[in-house]
């Protein structure tokens, strides 16, 4: 289950590089990495503004979605949410960041799915048809369900990667990762949280399927719907454990409302045939 380190760590030695937000709104993400004990660890911060500092809570979203996918029984990249001091703009800042291990196995190389698709697709073949032809339909259908539940706004073609081992002649998709731009990531005030419609089908940046996460559920054949572990009301405590004081209570409650209502809507959709 997704881990949480609340005791403040000294990570001021990390060097951060700026990644522009693909959603087109103000701010950017900062990323860093280190190698510990032969393992490569990747770190990222929530939305960062050079004037206001870290202003988002995307890293907390990563932990919540990590826990959700564990409950549902879906393979995914694990994240740790870490309370830490980091060096930003020449000043020490106290933040919550997330960390994950490299998902590549020895001998594997990675390539973004959109790049691989452009080089290997058949004429007229859509990204969805391409993935089905390569045997990845179960992965894609699970991803459609997950992105509906969390309203993922940013499943672009580089947020899915292909891992290849040329010596073993194997190829697989990476575990699901990068879910920060989901849930209520744009809600930075109490008023924004209060008026947010958790069931609204907002346009998303997606590479496979349509720009509607709701319409993407309809692309899943009835006989191929993912068999997931059921979500239960008591799972709220599991998903939000330890997050009091990291995010406001009203935001945490709204996040759970979103996940639960969308889960119920997904179940209703499946039962209607």
Keywords:
273 residues; alpha+beta; 6-stranded mixed sheet; 3-stranded antiparallel sheet; 8 helices; globular
Mean pLDDT: 94
Q: Would you report the number of β strands?
A: 13
Report, as a whole number of angstroms, the end-to-end distance: 32 Å
Which of globular, elongated, flat, extended, rod-shaped describes the shape?
globular
Low-confidence stretches: 20-26
Write down the Rg: 19 Å
Strand content: 15-25%
Indicate the structural class: alpha+beta
Spatially, the strands of the biggest sheet line up as 1-7-8-4-3-2
Main beta sheet strand tally, sense and closure: 6 strands, mixed
Helix content: 25-40%
Q: SSE order, as H and E? A: EEEEEEHEEEHHHEEEHEHHH
Distinct helical segment count: 8
Describe the fold and architecture.
There is one protein chain. The chain is globular, with a radius of gyration of 19 Å. The protein has 273 residues and is an alpha+beta fold. The strands form 4 sheets. The protein has a 6-stranded mixed sheet. A 3-stranded antiparallel sheet has the order 9-11-12. The two termini are 32 Å apart. Helix 4 (137-150) crosses helix 8 (249-271). It has 8 helices and 13 strands. A hairpin with a 4-residue loop joins strand 11 (161-165) and strand 12 (170-173).
Summarize the structure.
The protein is an alpha+beta fold. The protein has helices at 58-72, 113-120, 127-133, 137-150, 190-195, 213-217, 235-239, 249-271; strands spanning 3-10, 17-20, 28-36, 39-44, 48-49, 53-54, 80-88, 91-101, 109-112, 154-155, 161-165, 170-173, 205-206.
């Amino acid at each position: 289950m997704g881990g949480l380190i609340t005791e403040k760590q000294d990570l001021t030695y990390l060097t951060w590089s700026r990644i522009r937000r693909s959603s087109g709104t103000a701010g950017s993400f900062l990323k860093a990495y280190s190698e510990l004990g032969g393992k490569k660890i990747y770190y990222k911060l929530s939305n960062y503004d050079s004037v206001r500092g870290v202003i988002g809570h995307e890293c907390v979203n990563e932990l919540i979605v990590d826990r959700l996918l564990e409950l549902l029984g879906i393979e995914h990249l694990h994240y740790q949410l870490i309370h830490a001091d980091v060096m930003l703009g020449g000043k020490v800042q106290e933040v919550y960041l997330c960390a994950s291990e490299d998902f590549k196995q020895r001998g594997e190389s990675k390539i973004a799915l959109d790049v691989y698709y452009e080089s290997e697709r058949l004429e007229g073949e859509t990204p969805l048809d391409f993935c089905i032809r390569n045997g990845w339909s179960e992965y894609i259908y699970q991803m459609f369900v997950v992105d509906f539940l969390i309203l993922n706004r940013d499943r672009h073609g580089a947020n899915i990667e292909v891992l290849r081992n040329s010596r073993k002649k194997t190829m697989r998709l990476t575990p699901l990762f990068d879910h920060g731009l989901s849930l209520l990531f744009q809600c930075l005030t109490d008023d924004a949280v209060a008026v947010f419609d958790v069931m609204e089908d907002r346009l998303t940046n997606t590479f496979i399927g349509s720009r509607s996460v709701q319409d993407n559920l309809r692309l899943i054949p009835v006989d191929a719907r993912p068999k997931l572990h059921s979500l239960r009301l008591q799972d709220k405590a599991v998903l939000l454990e330890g997050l009091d004081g990291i995010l406001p209570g009203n935001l945490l409650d709204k996040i759970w409302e979103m996940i639960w209502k969308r889960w119920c809507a997904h179940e209703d959709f499946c039962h209607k045939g």
